[in-house]
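user: At home tonight, take the chain set out below, taking as long as you need, and be ready to discuss the fold:
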Amino acid sequence: MGSAPGLGPGLGLGHFLLPAGGALSLAGVVTGDGTLISLSWVMWVLGILLLLWNRSRRPADPRELAAAAAAGNARAVRGLRTLALAARAEGRPEAAERMLRQAVGAGDVESMWELGRLVERRAGLAEAEPWFRMAAERGHPVAKRLFRPGGALHPDGAGPTV
C-alpha cells in the first residue's frame, strides 16, 4: 500500500526538522561542536524544503482518495473523511455525505458516526439510526451510548425514543 494521493511523505516532518535543527544548533554553539552546527544546517534546509514541497502539492482529489480508500489505504480513508468534514463545514452537505459514504464503504467507523450525525441533522434521529447502529456495533464509544438504557435510541433497536 503506497502513499495516498495528496498525502505524501514529510507532511509533518518539516515542522519537526526546523525546531530540532534549532536545538541542535544551540547545542553545537554551547558545546563548541562544529559537527552539530553543520548537522543543524542540514536539518533546517531539509525542513524548509519539505515545507515548500508540501505547499506546492495539489490538494487531494476526492475521487483518487475514494479509489485508494476502496483499495484498503487507511490514510486515504482518513483523508476522505477529512475532506467530507470540511465540505460539511463549508455548507456542502451533499458532497460531505457522498464522501462519508465512500469512507463508510471502506469500513471507517468514525465516518459511520459522522454520516449518522449528518443524516440526523437533515432527516432526524430515526433516519440516522442505522448509521449510529453500524458505528456502535463496530465499537464507536459515543454511538454505543445511544443504545444504552437511557440513551437516545432503544437498546433493542426498536427505534428512537422521545
Q: What stands out?
A: The chain is about 70% helix and 0% strand. The first helix runs from residue 13 to 31.
